[in-house]
Amino acid sequence: VQSFMRGWLCRRKWKTIVQDYICSPHAESMRKRNQIVFNMVEAESEYVHQLYVLVNCFLRPLRMAASSKKPPISHDDVSSIFLNSETIMFLHEIFHQGLKARIANWPTLILADLFDILLPMLNIYQEFVRNHQYSLQVLANCKQNRDFDKLLKQYEANPACEGRMLETFLTYPMFQVVSVYFFAFCIVSHRVMHDEVSDTENIRKNLAIERTIVEGCDILLDTSQTFIRQGSLIQVPSVERGKLSKVRLGSLSLKKEGERQCFLFTKHFLICTRSSGGKLHLLK
To answer: What's the pTM value of the predicted model, to 2 decimals?
Structure first.
């Protein structure tokens, strides 16, 4: 009966702890972060596919056509229409693969360094945006050529295009650059907020431990010190040549085993004794 009651009390306490965490600001922050990340992975996957269609169904075939005996379009016009689309595709493929590798380690997600890949792309996207209107004008002029227009319609009939025209694929990077840097801002903002929450919780933990020590403990008032773990250790006396020798730990002389309450921090290791009344006393 006692075993049953202890189990029931433990499960009830654990349920309360879980429910409190689910409703906590930290849990809500993590849910928002996860939603941002999962939406970003889904959007990035779709975007890489769009770039793949743009490059493989339009850019590369037209580049080959420009090298034919009777080219329906010149290499200069191909470069003007597509500019650095292929480079953007390569970089986003690397970024997408990195995202999938990090998601495989969920719930541990470290993404900030991945956005270092995107930072150099800002200049590339700026060139693409500035060139966008000109690329559409060049494309419109090329469509005046019947041979080119006929060839382009063949490319657009590819099932991978799903009925979309070349102009549509050339427009996708215009919108994606906003989404990518919005996701980057959300991730960085969450990281700063998460650090602030962690610092606050750490200070509260240190103060809670300091208040349990009868003599107090000034070193726990250092806000740069982080709590790691706590637990009980058994201090045992040493034996020399079959004789029991005294072990001196701080102000305590020990002739027999004794349980010590220990607290490990990044800068200090505290050892305490617990009195019969349950209070902690710090050893020097």
So the answer is: 0.56
Residues 6+ apart with CB under 8 A from 232: 259, 260, 261, 262
For residue 140, what is the enclosing H or E element?
A: helix 121-142
**Per-residue model confidence as pLDDT tens digits over 182-207:** 655 555 555 444 444 455 567 777 77
Q: Do 228 and 266 contact (CB within 8 A), yes or no? A: yes
**Domain annotation for the chain: domains and CATH numbers:** 25-191 (1.20.900.10), 214-238+256-283 (no CATH)
What ranges make up the beta strands (E) of the chain?
A: 227-235, 239-240, 243-244, 247-249, 252-254, 258-265, 269-274, 280-282
Q: Are 254 and 246 in contact (CB under 8 A)?
A: yes
Count the Cβ atoms, other than its own, within 10 Å of residue 227. 18
